[in-house]
Amino acid sequence: MDALTRRIFCLALVALSLPALAQDRAAEVQIKAAFLYKFGDFVQWPPASFPRADAPFAIGVMGAEDVAAALEQLVANRTVQGRPVVVRHVRPGESLARLHILFIGQSDAPRLADTLAAAKGQALLIVTESDNAISQGSMINFVADDQRVRFDIALASAERGQLKISSRLLAVARRVITS
Prior knowledge:
Layout: H1 3-17, H2 25-39, E1 43-44, E2 57-62, H3 65-75, E3 79-80, E4 83-89, E5 101-104, H4 112-119, E6 125-128, H5 133-136, E7 140-145, E8 148-154, H6 155-160, E9 164-165, H7 167-172, E10 175-177
Parallel strand pairs: 2-4, 2-5, 5-6, 6-7, 8-10
Antiparallel strand pairs: 1-9, 3-4, 7-8
Helix pairs in contact: 1-2, 2-3
């Protein structure tokens, strides 16, 4: 892991200890954007996920324009696993092809089952922020825990999606669900 990646990961860990007050949505959005960016360094995708050696690392955002905007600013001129990062605004029903991470915001939670069905068979890390999203098939779900932004990981869902999550990411999760 290079020095920049270590610094950003450390910042994300520090964010775990900073209160993300409910009324401070801007701080919450920044923390979620940082996590989405850093998740890319701690997940392994199958080689077929990148059709070309120079293919970008793509993060899609559905139903959370504020997170997408923060993420676009954060990833400018940065890389994930040596690849340039692009952020794609995804609308319900659009193709999920060539995405590596998809964040589904609270406003699109009612469409989670349809989105998960569309993603089936793809090596796509699904990240959500909704109650019961893990039980529906989400792989990582943001949760508020003692006024902090934390996340739970569904290891079996990630493995079904052909993804391998680093033990370092599992170690900082609030909860790891294995079944």
